[in-house]
Specification:
Blueprint lengths: L2 E2 L1 H12 L8 E9 L5 E9 L5 E4 L5 E4 L1 H6 L3 E7 L5 E7 L8
Parallel strand pairs: 1-6, 2-5
Antiparallel strand pairs: 2-3, 4-5, 6-7
Organism: Lentzea fradiae
Protein name: Fe-S cluster assembly iron-binding protein IscA
InterPro entries: HesB-like_dom_sf (IPR035903)
Amino acid sequence: MLEVTPMAAEVINELTSQTEAPSDDVGLRFALAADQNSQAALELSLSEAADGDQVVAAPSGAKVILEPAAAQYLDDKVLDVRQDDEGNPAFAIARQEPGQPGL
């Protein structure tokens, strides 16, 4: 199952609190989409879960919503946050290390 680091959870909570109608049901949603070269790409949005979605809740209350194909792709991954070249937070996905404790 996708693991969410505390820093990623903090950024998700900040993003969801800034939506037009903040709700406990809104989370960061991952969906798989095919790009122009027929390769899979992850799309991010802030939304509520749809039927069939998997919801990963971080201890801080942050929610990550995974559509079924994205859930399968992200099953052995960790969602974290890094700074981009301009110092802004950017989500990063890495493989879970064997024996890594749950976050």
